[in-house]
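#onboarding

Welcome to the new folks! Below is a worked example of what a typical request in this channel looks like: someone posts a single protein sequence, and someone else replies with the predicted structure as tokens. Don't worry about understanding the tokens yet, we'll cover that in week two.

Example request:
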Amino acid sequence: MWVLYDFANSIISIVFFLYFSQWLVIEQGIPDIWYNLAFPIAAVLLLLTVPTTGVLLDKYWRRIAGLRYTTIGTAVLYGFCSYLAAHGQTIEALVVFTIGLYFYLLSFTFYTPLLNDIASPEKRGRVSGYGIAANYLGQIAGLLIALPFATGSLNLFSGSQRAETLLPAVMVFFLLALPMLILFKEPPAQKIEFSYKTEVRRSLRETKTLFTIPGVFAFLTAYFFFNDAILTASNNFAIFLEQVWKISDTTKTYLMLGILATSALGGLVSGQIADRVGHKRTLIYILSGWLIILPLIAWITDFKLFVVAAIIMGLWFGSNWTVSRSVMSYLCPRDKHNLTFAYFGLVERVSAFVGPIVWGLVLSNAISLGPSRYRLAATVLTVFVFFGLLAMRKVPKDDIPRPQHILA
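Example response:
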């Protein structure tokens, strides 16, 4: 069920990032930076809620309850956004998308820590790999579900073909998420009265203590930088394809299917490699590869070579998410899984505060370069990966004993 949920939530992520982004920027003429601002706004909302949520989860709440509320919120808001887009209400759709994005991202605060409940320490890399593989297979399914609507073969509202793809993806997502929401069993939390103000103060105190654990702060810093680059590139990839290569949505779909297939393979293989040779070492190899891949993808001028390079890039996408989660898993103290993963999810999304703004500023200030400004923006992201690689040097290796608890 945990893996099936990863499969389900990836369906809406790929469809919205492929079709909603193009509908907004290409069809409706909204500036790139407006679309990209949705991510930092959602990150700020997370920043205001996630730390205290993590503490309350560790002490009082059940994760499955939070997952239910955020999943329903995601489905309702994304469904409403789909309706607005299909009826051409641009600004309203962008606002609702931003709020829906917050609920979608917040759901991972409840979902990701369940990895520690369903897998033993020596198998977490492998299970994380299964989840990542399911995620990419779900994205493949999302593209296939959306394709008939994107080509105009099917429609619900007689609206824009790109806008028509959104609601079917939301409906399939919610149906596939139901088994996890209904059937997953978690021990009931102890009913204890608490003061929100007290818990906020406690969360700040526990956060300070958490960051004294060797490697936690260093890894979150590294993750902030390299994930910034990868998320920004991923969120803008469809627009990059349109502006640089001028290919059809059908061609984009088939290209992304190839990338997602190798991403699923990368997720499976990298988890097993990390379990054998070490999670930190594996992640360093992955980040070193990104330093080559991003500039290569940005500046290739032959489309056939671009397709080959992009499909190979998929291996790095899948590997990155798998090994990052498993590194965070071995670093976090046993009784602070929820708080640690809350910050892991928070850093993942707060990193999207910087990257999209940098991307948008590069595009806004390099209009004279034409489509090449997208190539330049992709190249600039390499700097963030480099800083992440530098920060990884302070992360302890897997074989160093980790503390099992910390005092609040």
